[in-house]
């Protein structure tokens, strides 16, 4: 859960909009120049957090908020239990930051405005902040292993499919060979039958001529 802790008393009213959709916290608040506001975020171990911020300075003449390039934003992230600073950087009026929780527990996210426009200028700043809490590395590792397992299964199925295709190709080749052999065998059988018929025909003719000659010789006697 997200809650605020101020390190400097601010007279100006604070307007907060919180949109909770599981892993996203969006809000905006008002700061004076040089003021700081902190938030506590309870995070699991090895969790990636992405932050997006934008500071808008109030223009008293135009009565609007606009981004002033001279406005800087100091961002610090501290692990509450160990007081270890995970992030300590000064950014531009609009930017992003990312960190990974080193331990499970509360983490303090602080934003401070650093104005370089002059000593006597203390404009009011409207700060927008979006915090996205990503998945932990353990979940990412699990998903990676799951994806690798699925990839391995897909590869195994592809190998089996290749084996089936090779077997089908082998069967087709054997069918072609068997068909060619059958055609050759049938062709030889037909020719052999024709040869037998021709031989039988000539034998019949020879026997008839032989018998005819035999009877003619007997008749002459």
UniProtKB/TrEMBL annotation:
Residue ranges the record marks as coiled coil: 147-174
Listed transmembrane segments: 12-31, 189-208
Domain GOLD: 36-131
Cellular compartments per GO CC: membrane
Broad class of the protein's primary localization: membrane
Pfam families: EMP24_GP25L
Keywords: Coiled coil, Membrane, Signal, Transmembrane, Transmembrane helix
InterPro entries found in the cross-reference section: Emp24-like, GOLD_dom
Subcellular location: Membrane
Membrane topology: Single-pass type I membrane protein
SMART domains: EMP24_GP25L
Family indicated by similarity: Belongs to the EMP24/GP25L family.
PANTHER family the UniProt entry points to: TRANSMEMBRANE EMP24 DOMAIN-CONTAINING PROTEIN
Record-given protein name: Emp24p/erv25p-protein
Name of the coding gene: ERP1_2
């Amino acid at each position: 859960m997200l809650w605020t802790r101020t390190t400097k008393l601010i007279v100006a009213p604070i307007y907060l909009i919180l949109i909770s959709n599981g892993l996203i916290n969006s809000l905006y608040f008002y700061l004076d120049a040089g003021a700081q506001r902190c938030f506590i975020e309870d995070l699991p171990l090895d969790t990636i957090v992405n932050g997006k911020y934008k500071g808008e300075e109030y223009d008293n003449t135009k009565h609007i908020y606009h981004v002033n390039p001279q406005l800087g934003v100091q961002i610090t992230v501290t692990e509450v239990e160990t007081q270890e600073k995970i992030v300590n950087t000064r950014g531009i009026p609009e930017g992003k930051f990312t960190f990974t929780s080193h331990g499970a527990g509360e983490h303090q996210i602080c934003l401070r405005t650093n104005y370089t426009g002059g000593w006597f200028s203390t404009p009011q700043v409207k700060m927008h902040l979006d915090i996205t809490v990503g998945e932990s590395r353990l979940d990412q590792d699990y998903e990676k292993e799951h994806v690798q397992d699925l990839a391995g299964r897909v590869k195994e199925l592809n190998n089996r499919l290749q084996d089936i295709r090779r077997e089908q190709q082998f069967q087709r080749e054997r069918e072609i060979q068997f068909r060619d052999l059958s055609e050759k065998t049938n062709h030889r059988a037909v020719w052999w039958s024709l040869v037998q018929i021709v031989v039988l025909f000539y034998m019949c003719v020879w026997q008839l001529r032989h018998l005819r000659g035999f009877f003619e010789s007997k008749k002459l006697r």
